[in-house]
Amino acid sequence: MQVTETLNSGLKREIKITVPAGDMEAKLMARLNDARDKVRINGFRPGKVPVQHLRKMYGKSFMAEVVNEILNDSTRSIISGRGEKAAMQPEVIMTEDEKEAEKILAGGSDFEFRLNYEVIPAIEIKDFSDIKVTRQVYDVPVSEVDDQVKRVAESARSYEPKEGKAAEGDRVSIDYVGKIGGEAFAGGAGTDQPLVLGSKEFIPGFEDQLIGSKAGDQKLVTVTFPENYQAAHLAGKE
Question: How far is residue 218 CA from its own chain's centroid?
């Protein structure tokens, strides 16, 4: 087996491997001789089938097994023998010429293929004993802690059904359809939308006009989108 490096650029490698036809023939004959004692062919006693007869019947399939064996074994051994580790499964490139492939399977030509792969670079471990690390400490103000606790408490707050009018801090469930100039616009409708009055989740003025409403009420809410509203086609419109 002849191994030749044809590319060594950065992490990229290409290796050309040539297995002489004589070596391929030897591997094939070893398989054929081993098969003599195992195959059963009409007209021949066990173990007495001529090798040439076996070759005529199974030569190409056995040679295909030889090719696969060489590919599997050589790929691992060649790369490890070079002291390298492939980052991914190497790409195997063989001839695409059908006539050349037939000659290889018939034992009449050298078997040549290439391996393309990238190597895992060597990692040098530095001495970190002289490096000093400063631990960053952030003094959290009590007010920030209180604000965060308040937000968590609000998010976990439970609500009970209420009789009477909605007040600020109550959570209501609304169905709504937004319209501009009497025409509904895309993204402006919702069903069973939970909304805590006073949370300022909707545009300014919307929640204020729901305060005092009762379950089942229908209300006409008139608001104007802010000039800096994220949807430019709605900005500044009523």
Answer: 50
**Alpha carbon distances (Å) from 100 to 94, 104, 106, 109, 116:** 10, 6, 10, 8, 21
pLDDT category of residue 39 using cuts at 50, 70 and 90: confident
**What is the spatial distance between Cα 1 and Cα 215, in angstroms, rounded to a whole number?**
87
Find, among 96, 33, 117, 25, the residue nearest to 67 by Cα: 25
**Of 121 and 157, the one with more pLDDT:** 121
CATH 3.10.50.40 fits 163-238, yes or no: yes
Question: DSSP class of residue 170?
Answer: -
What band does 47 get if pLDDT is binned at 50, 70 and 90?
confident
Q: Is the pLDDT of residue 46 over 80?
A: no
CATH 1.20.1300.10 fits 2-118, yes or no: no
When pLDDT is cut at 50, 70 and 90, the band that residue 186 belongs to is confident
Q: What tokens appear for 16 in the block?
A: 């050309």
Domain ranges for the chain, please list them. Answer: 2-118, 163-238
Strand partners, 13: 8, 117
- Residue 52: CA atoms inside 13 Å, Cβ hemisphere, count? 0
